[in-house]
Amino acid sequence: MSAMIWRLLLIIFIQISITSSQNSDRVALQALRDSWQDTLLNWNDDTDLCDWVGVTCTNFRVTSLILSSMGLSGGLPGDIGQFTELQILDLSYNKDMRGSLTPAIGNLRKLTNLILVGCNFNGPIPDSIGNLERLRYLSLNSNGFTGSIPPSLGNLKNLYWLDLSANKLTGSLPASEGTQPGLDMLTHAKHFHFGDNQLSGDIPSGLFNSNMSLIHLLFENNRLTGKIPTTLALVHPLEVVRLDRNMLSGDVPSNINSLTNVTEMYLSLNRFTGPVPNLTGMNRLNYLDLSNNGFDQSNIPSWFSTLQSLTTLKMKFTNLVGELPASFFSIPQLQNVDLSNNRINGSLDISSNPSTQLELVDLQTNLITDFTQRNQYDIGLILVGNPICTESGVTYKFCSLPTNTSGRSYSTQSNNCVPPSCGPNLVSSPNCQCAYPFTGLFSFKAPSFSSVTNSTIYDSLQKLLMTFFKNASLPVDSVSLRNPTRNMEDYLVLRLEVFPYGELSFNRTGIIGVSFALSNQTFKPKSDFNTYTFIAENYNNFFPGSTPRGANKKLSNTGIIIGSAIGGCVFVILLVLAGMYALRQKGRAKQIVQQSQPFALWDATSGSGGVPQLKGARSFTFEDLSKCTGNFSDITKIGAGGYGMVYKGTLPNGQLIAIKRAQHGSTQGGLEFKTEIELLSRVHHKNVVGLIGFCFDKGEQMLVYEYIVNGTLKDSLSGRSGIRLDWMRRLKIALGAARGLQYLHDLADPPIIHRDVKTNNILLDQRLVAKVADFGLSKPLSDANRTHVTTQVKGTMGYMDPEYYMTQQLTEKSDVYSFGVVMLELITARNPIEKGKYIVREVKQAMNRNKELYNLYQLLDPTIGLNSQLKGLERFVDLSLKCVEESGNQRPAMSEVVKELESIMAMVGLNPGSESSSSTSASYEGTRNSDYNHPYSNDSLFAYSGGFLPPKLVPK
Question: pTM of the prediction?
Fold first, then answer.
């Protein structure tokens, strides 16, 4: 009997857990709905969440959110991280979705498809995406993402599709090094699409290896430099290679012709030199573009005529010399030849059985003297600028540029019917039905053909689309393709119109189905078209209502059946447990509500300002943090300041955290609390300290940060941390901190002025990577004030900009001044004000530019290293003094500071791409002093209280 009771209790527990999880998903969906403020989804609290448009459930849990083309606006809040069973997230084609991508996305450990195509997201791609080890499709293309490609993407071992194209990404391509992951680890990935960004630097040789499965490598239209690494030839599965429109240089690797599976290769608009590459053996090559490079003068390559699959050859401005063989034009599928602006000479012969598909031969501005034509055929031939066209009285049609052929552009024809006259905004479909079509643009990035007028191939694509939609049971009547063109990037662009079946317009579920098929690359075109991007236009003509999903209703019915079956057996037990369960659920509901609406009880009259505007930060209860710290025991205290106490804690997942607990009744602390949450929740950079969350519960104000194990830069310079910083480490730390500040000034949205840059607010992690911290005094620059903020003077004496002090106008150059002081502190290890002496003045008075190390021996920190090891120190001092110029307009911007520090690092032989220590995490001179002030303390040795003048204004 007892065994039966335990089984029944287990069943009840499972039911309770399922109900609780489903409630959690409902609350999170409600939070998303409130954040997006949409008018199209019509998510109703009175219906089962599994029947909401775009929501799919499995076993009562939300497993997919497909909301493409729904007209959503707003950001993606941290509540998304609560969907722990989510497998597919597609928010594509919602052009009013903006803001940064929350790091909470990394909590979705079961996610397989993350698709955010054609939105307006910005800011950096969070490192936390590297936690999604089940991810197969990652499409973030056509947004406004900035910053570098996170190396953590190398952890996505199951990734098949990676598309980061058409963003504003900068920096280099990450390859694995030591313990740092890189893209070379993605051995199962078939697609690297990184085109149309601002990526720079050399392509690392370690980026490619023979274990990779890549078929599409698209790096076009970036700022990549250096040579093509020879390791590229190890990736034998490659079919499409686009490296065009970069600044690549040197010889094209001689082993590139070992890529015998390549069908499209674009190397144009670079700075290649040396011989024209020998492509003998690349027999599958359809499309080849080597134009606009500085190759050595070369005779017409013999391999031209061996590439029997060729449809397109473009080699203008490539220093070709000699006579074209007539056999070249007999390649069966040849369509387009552009060899203009070379030194091709002799007689041109296209008469020997030319390809029936040949449309255009452009040989303008060469040295051709004769043309043999025995048969009449319609080929667009251009010989303008050749000797054959310079004789007087020449009337050959090929001696003038062709007229515009746009009138021949393709458009899907009606299916044996007469198109009706339709009303405003309605369009006649190929089946001659008036409707509101779903529209957008296909961009095919590497088609095998060059023709834009061949109706046969577009008719084939149109039939493929209709067959796909029909097999997928989508409500599509017909599709139309229009206006094929080649854009500046040589993409083939086509306009697509999809017409609804049996109605004037689509309903919401119909649009979601069609959009997802294109955003998720479910539709696969034939090989002629290769890879594509589809960008949908807004659809504003939804048919009322949406199709219910019976499958999801069955899930709910299953729960009812289970509950009814056990209800009669355990009625008495349920009565006993009901009270306990109600109390427990009340507490859980309170916690869930707090996490989704953490500031519902915010008291703006307490001196802590209005309700904060967050970009995703986890809400902790007081009990959560009490457990993390052993009820805030003294042994977990790691610092103290005017703001309050700082505690070290450990989350249930083992992550170390630092908890900054405000003193009760501190109004200034409340303002700092709000400011830090607002700013840090939307800044994400490896050189800025990460905010994990906050607590606003039971009258408590607590900030929860990532724990930075090596403390403050001040601790290391003073010797309290036991870490010895040599000159190389100090250079790396300076660069890291500068990059953090540059991010705040240039890339944060809105831009942020830190206002309290000092060595106490620069932290060092386990690899001695610098992180800018403590944003309690920071100020954002609004759209109305993009140059300065007029505000009460606050900051730390010794670091404060005197111009800001006198004018009360805070600018980004105020942070530059403070950073200049930090640079001087880095080389001297002295406090900015020490025994009445100001470090800036001391350096200026002691230095002599005509002597070694500017004669600063007496001021330099003895532990910094020997004189012979201080290469670049003079330039470092020069830069720091530029930063502390009296007038802000004479100081460099932080971006200029970063460039100069990178230049100094390169000069001394360091890699400016990484500020972390190249060997050990830290060098210790003794045991760690356990009671030194922790980085999150808010104290300062020279905190400004309104009664002192900055040192530059104190009379001597």
Answer: 0.59
